[in-house]
DNA sequence: GGCGTTTCTCAGGAAATTCACAGGCTGGGC
DNA sequence: GCCCAGCCTGTGAATTTCCTGAGAAACGCC
């Protein structure tokens, strides 16, 4: 089930019409808060736990639709936490947070089911998208939300990562894809370069703000080439996407 | 929920019909005062805190709908304050105030979800607009306010920054946009050049007062061209906007 | 380890915007 | 009808903002 909020953003709802519930299990307060705030803003109900014991308690009481689990925790490792979570709630999908070098072999074993993972440092856009995907596939929301975003004759499939303009398939790199997705999830809304940077680039990105300009430029070459432009610059304010003409 | 005040200004109200509450956290007394006065005049309830400890206390008692947070504070840096605020009130949206050059290092990673920031020196119009946006999207006011302002056949969308007159789209620069927004938020009310300067230009603007005349002139060329004029001069008093005829 | 791809920095140039200045215009008091 | 403060607006220059090519560095895939 999806609902269009007054601001025009699409919200994810559960079968009973209540907001989706997410449990965040992470001992780094800063990260945990960053995620909480972001997910709340997505319209979800969030609860967070700082260690494994708390997580198990929370999953029992809170009955989340999905769990974000940092695999490095102070009192138990992620695997034990996972095991105990699963004992409580076998079907709940889990999004693992992991360091880049804490290689894929371990994670691969964990994510065998419907689970997924992102590596630190991640972008908020990525976490939100993965979570949406997990929840969508888990069937927590009764009416399946579409994975297809569209603005005018431009479409973007969040599952297959396929992008088309006027039926024509377009190849995008990972960053280009995330930028376009963020724009398309906020059509007709001006997004500042700072907002884009905070959302699409990873939280520890320390580079120049003009990467945003650069990637907008890349996108335009691929998206708006030969067509009426959909990506618009609002000088001094930011960028927005809207149907051509 | 919006209400039209007796003077014709639109006010923002919370679900319970009470005014919106804003907490200002800033150690520069002058700036803090300026903001307080401005926000009170907007019809909001304002409380201010000069340091982090006070801020934490205030957020606990006052339960603000939004926080304005200067990231440079005497006793704690903005990040710690933010963290402690969030522990008290996880969902409260924050508007960060920051120096222009400090932007790129630290702010990334702070702004999550609905948060936003403005760089010093800012214009009051900008701060108010951002705050309104933050509160509007956070859901503090039960009936969400529209992002669309309209006076006669003139409309201004604060989200898309789109302006139309009689259905015809009009391109405005950033300053023109802010000036028009200020006028349109105060329809049928005479605004003096001094008021406009104080509100639309940044607080450290040191230029000639006749920029206001200049920008009114620009606006007229774009807004009132060929139509019955909506922007009127009250000689010796100021300007006002009202529907044509 | 090599090679193509992707990400990002840097810097030059183009374009839009902001603003000062100054001369012209106007309304209203006399 | 005259005058002047107050207002309007054309011109142009400084500044800001944005766009984009070139190339270095990092990454990922055999």
Describe this structure in words.
The structure is a homodimer of 245-residue chains. The first copy, chain A, is of the alpha/beta class and 245 residues long. Chain A has two domains: 2-138, Response regulator (Rossmann fold); 148-241, Orthogonal Bundle (Arc Repressor Mutant, subunit A), CATH 1.10.10.10. Chain A is 37% helix and 22% strand. Chain A contains eight helices and 13 strands. Chain A has a five-stranded parallel β-sheet, with helices on both faces. A four-stranded antiparallel β-sheet of chain A has the order 8-9-10-11, covered by helices on one side. Chain A has a two-stranded antiparallel sheet with strand order 1-2. In chain A, strand 12 and strand 13 form a beta hairpin. The two termini of chain A are 31 Å apart. The mean pLDDT of chain A is 88. Chain B binds a DNA duplex (30 and 30 nucleotides) through residues 173-176, 207-208, 210-211, 213-218, 220-221, 233, 235-236.
Residue-averaged pLDDT of chain A: 88
**Name given to the CATH homologous superfamily of the largest domain in chain A:** Response regulator
Q: Determine the N-to-C terminus distance of chain A.
A: 31 Å
Provide the low-confidence segments of chain A as ranges.
none
Cα-atom Rg of chain A, whole angstroms?
19 Å
CATH class of the largest domain in chain A: Alpha Beta
Going by CATH, the architecture of the largest domain in chain A would be: 3-Layer(aba) Sandwich
Number of strands of chain A: 13
Strand content of chain A: 15-25%
> What's the SSE pattern of chain A?
EEEHEHEHEHEHEEEEHHHEE
User: What's the structural domain tally of chain A?
Assistant: 2
Main β sheet profile of chain A: 5 strands, parallel
